[in-house]
Amino acid sequence: MNINIDNKIKAPEVFEKEMYLILENFANFFKLDTKKEIILDVSIVSRNEIRKLNKEYRNKDYITDILSFDFRDHELYAKLPIIHLGELVISW
Questions:
Q1: Residue 15 lies in a domain
Q2: Do 6 and 43 touch, CB atoms closer than 8 A?
Q3: What confidence tier does 52 reach under pLDDT thresholds 50, 70, 90?
Q4: Among 27, 63, 69, 73, which is disulfide-ready with 32 (CB 3.0 to 4.6 Å)?
Q5: What is the domain extent for residue 62?
Q6: What is the CATH number of the domain that holds 59?
Q7: Would you place residue 15 in the very low, low, confident or very high pLDDT band (cuts 50, 70, 90)?
Q8: Percent of the chain having pLDDT more than 70?
């Protein structure tokens, strides 16, 4: 299991150990094929940045706490021996 963290705004360190535990519980709950590598991307951005992303991708012009982008059904990843869950964008 792999979590890629992009901390764009110098927020305090994210607790990677807890994030891996959450990802492991998620994989177990949804009975994901753990023979494949499971990947989750996490970006920590400013309130202004998340507002821009919310407007661009959801046509909602306001700040939100989190955005999620599901990659599981993306054709590119379907052919690879990985499960790329997608990306979480967290406002800090």
A1: no
A2: yes
A3: very high
A4: 27
A5: 2-10+29-91
A6: 3.40.390.30
A7: low
A8: 90
Let me know how long the chain is: 92
Residue 16 lies in a domain: no
Domain count for the chain: 1
Predicted confidence (pLDDT) at residue 61 exceeds the cutoff of 80: yes
CA 55 to chain centre: 18
Query: In this structure, are residues 38 and 2 in contact, taking their beta carbons and an 8 Å threshold?
Result: yes
Give the model confidence (pLDDT) of 75-89 as tens digits: 776 777 888 888 999
Q: Which residues contact 91 (CB under 8 A, 6 or more apart)?
A: 45, 46, 47, 49, 50, 63, 64, 65, 66
pTM of the model: 0.79
Residue 45 lies in a domain: yes
Instruction: Give the pair of three-digit tokens for residue 34.
Output: 């753990």
